[in-house]
Amino acid sequence: MSVTLRLADEVDITRGELIASAADAPAPTQDVDGLVCWLSDRALRPGSKVLLKHTTRTVQGIVKEIKGRLDLDTLAPVEAEALTLNDIGRVSIRLASPIVAEDYSASRRTGAFLLIDPQMGSTLAAGMIRSRPGSDPLSADEFEAATLNWSI
After folding, report:
1. CATH topology for 30-133?
2. Residues 6 or more apart from 120 whose CB is under 8 A from it?
3. Mean per-residue pLDDT, 9-15
4. Across the chain, where does the E strand assignment appear?
5. pLDDT, tens digit, for every residue of 60-106?
């Protein structure tokens, strides 16, 4: 089924764009902290290049940090330099272009993502956004380029 929206302003929107009230719209970000379930035989390490599929968009990313993993025997968080098959861990990813994301607890649709192998196209991990770090905020120009505001 198709949906047609008529907007008050002429705005070029395409599949994957998020339409939200200006008062409630989440800000775009290029930094994502996530909790992931690692599904690959190949280990995930800082510096690994991945594709992040979020809603209908796929963007390039690089793993900045592995913040730890869950010890499945004790269910306690432990330090980790890498994630291996079936590990559940917390990672920080820097994206090549901004996404509009929310914490998974606020929205399952905008808080979930997949990590994909850029060469093979296989799914590496399923993840949930747990926070959006603000250490490297977007510049005003980057924010404007990633944000569309209009009246309906």
Report:
1. Elongation Factor Tu (Ef-tu); domain 3 (2.40.30)
2. none
3. 76
4. 28-38, 49-54, 57-71, 76-78, 88-100, 112-116, 123-131
5. 999 999 999 998 888 888 999 999 999 999 999 999 999 988 888 88
* Cβ-based neighbour number of residue 61 at 10 Å: 26
| Cα–Cα distance for residue pair 21/138, rounded to 1 Å | 21
Amino acid letter for position 39: L
Between CA 142 and CA 135 the distance in angstroms is 15
Rounded CA separation 150/45 (Å): 41
Categorize the per-residue pLDDT at 28 as very low, low, confident or very high, splitting at 50, 70 and 90. Answer: confident
Domain residue spans of the chain: 30-133
